[in-house]
Design a protein that fits this description.
Radius of gyration: 20 Å
Strand content: under 5%
Strand order of the largest sheet: 1-2
Distance between the termini: 6 Å
Number of strands: 2
CATH superfamily: Transmembrane di-heme cytochromes, Chain C
Low-confidence stretches: none
Helix content: 55-70%
CATH class: Mainly Alpha
Order of helices and strands: EHHHHHHE
Number of helices: 6
Length: 205
């Protein structure tokens, strides 16, 4: 049996899709700036990358404020509850039509233990890595005016390497995230839930 549960609030959905669009824009333009391919032209790609980066930073600031004022930050506290069962389900259960997900989402607990760990890693490691390295790279030549002079070319290369690492980690997360988004009771069930806010969940009969 299936039951409809309102899981994702309006700002949550706006934040999710806006962040996804900006991250994809940054990945596409960033790899062109990096020289991986040519599509828009270096200058246009660089301008679009910088604009998307500032828009994403503004969005992150609002999202951080929203998470802490609403208490939604608690959704990302790690938990080991049913972690073995969840891992087994993702490894084998999703290929069995008779298997049921061991975790049932609610408004108070939207993410299972593996999701919490993945999202926490993104928020505490990947996002700050991309954010800090990107700003350092963008304003590298102005650092002397802020009392951070004396950086060598090697250090600039290290900043660029850190930013590229963050980009690849974000790309890996995006690919895995999209894959798992298709593992609901239908391939588009989770995606539809992130559009409407309502998720159809299995209930024990």
């Amino acid at each position: 049996m299936m039951s409809r549960v309102y899981i994702f609030k309006r700002f949550e959905r706006f934040w999710h899709w806006s962040q996804a669009a900006l991250i994809i824009t940054m990945l596409v333009t960033g790899f062109e700036v990096h020289g991986s391919y040519r599509a828009f032209g270096w200058q246009q790609a660089a301008n679009a990358h910088t604009t998307a980066a500032w828009a994403l930073i503004v969005l992150w600031v609002f999202a951080i404020f929203w998470h802490f004022t609403t208490g939604e930050w608690k959704q990302y506290i790690p938990t080991a509850g049913k972690i073995t069962a969840v891992m087994y389900y993702y490894a084998f259960g999703i290929f069995d039509p008779n298997a049921h997900h061991p975790f049932r989402a609610t408004q108070l607990k939207k993410h299972n233990c593996l999701q919490r760990l993945a999202y926490l890693f993104v928020k505490l490691f990947i996002n700050p890595l991309v954010w800090v390295s990107g700003l350092l790279y963008l304003y590298y030549h102005d650092l002397g005016a802020y009392g951070v002079g004396g950086l060598s070319g090697l250090q600039l290369g290290t900043i660029a390497l850190a930013h590229t690492l963050g980009a690849f980690l974000m790309l890996i997360f995006l690919v895995v995230h999209v894959y798992f988004a298709t593992t609901g009771h239908t391939p588009l069930a989770h995606i539809k839930a992130m559009i409407t806010g309502w998720e159809d969940l299995e209930t024990e009969s």
